[in-house]
Specification:
InterPro entries: CinA-like_C, CinA_C. It comes from Sphingobium olei. With 170 residues, the chain is of the alpha/beta class. Helix content is 39%, strand content 19%. The protein is built from six helices and five strands, in the order αβαβαααβββα. A five-stranded mixed β-sheet has the order 2-1-3-4-5, sandwiched between helices. The longest helix is centred in the first third of the chain and has 17 residues. It is globular, with a radius of gyration of 15 Å.
């Protein structure tokens, strides 16, 4: 186990992701918003991760989601930053901006503020995009995590995103 300040369960899952994707001959990229680089940090805790982990994009603001990942302003204005449409566009953008075989995007509301009745704190949306997959095959999900503090929401979101990066994931 690497010497780390990250939670052990996060690093253990990241190690599984690196090993499984190395075995499958796949490279990965992530597009993070509410997790602020936590998934990228976990993946890079693993020695030898550079042969699997290709890129991490932290696009916290809507302007950067649009500029770096080419998320349409129309999508952001119509559906909001925390939506399946935005997460899907982020995942697609991460694939286009990298050479990775698979990407995962995470966008959500970690709290303590920023939530609404429709999207309370703990609402996080995930999307996975696979290079070469049919563009109409959307792999995305909205989850409602327990609001156990900002760090708790971010950790739950990072764990879920790592699960999506496993080759035999959903």
């Amino acid at each position: 186990m690497p010497d780390t300040i990250l939670p052990a369960q996060l690093v253990e899952l990241a190690e599984k992701v690196i090993i499984a994707n190395r075995r499958a001959g796949r490279t990965v990229a992530v597009a993070e918003s509410c997790t602020g680089g936590l998934v990228s940090a976990a993946l890079t805790e693993i020695a030898g991760s550079s042969d699997v982990f290709e890129a991490g994009f932290i696009t916290y603001s809507n302007d950067m989601k649009a500029e770096l990942l080419k998320v349409s302003h129309d999508v952001l204005e119509t559906f909001g930053a925390v939506s399946i449409a935005t997460a899907w566009a982020m995942a697609q953008g991460a694939l286009k901006k990298s050479h990775a075989h698979v990407s995962v995007a995470i966008t959500g509301i970690a709290g303590p503020g920023g939530g609404s009745e429709q999207k309370p704190v703990g609402t996080v949306v995930f999307a996975r995009a696979d290079r070469g997959a049919s563009p109409d095959k959307v792999v995305a999900d909205m989850r409602h995590f327990e609001n156990n503090g900002r760090g708790g929401v971010r950790l739950q979101a990072a764990l879920c995103a790592l699960e999506l990066l496993l080759p035999d994931g959903p």
